[in-house]
Amino acid sequence: MRHSMLRKMLESEDRYFLYRHPETNECHIFIGKYSQWLRTCESPSPKSVCERVNLDLLIEPGEPEPEEIFACEEEQAARDKCATLGREVCGTCVSTLYATEKE
Ligand SMILES: [Zn+2]
Question: Domain extents for the chain?
């Protein structure tokens, strides 16, 4: 079925990004879309999942930039990496990785 194939190609999935806040050293999760068609991730939303960090506001001239811990990871990989980092990751952000979303 050509129609469903096309739709599949245009689908995008959530992917996870982790950035470390330069002042608090806490890591927060950001969500970006992965395009099946382009086989790449778009830049994540500047707002963290917990809504406490805005990357756009953090990046200022002369200030240390938020460190990218990982980018464009699938849910399971993001869980594993966050588990390794433990308490360095914001609890609110991590909990969303374990929120069961059933369609
Ligand atoms: Zn957070």
Answer: 2-94
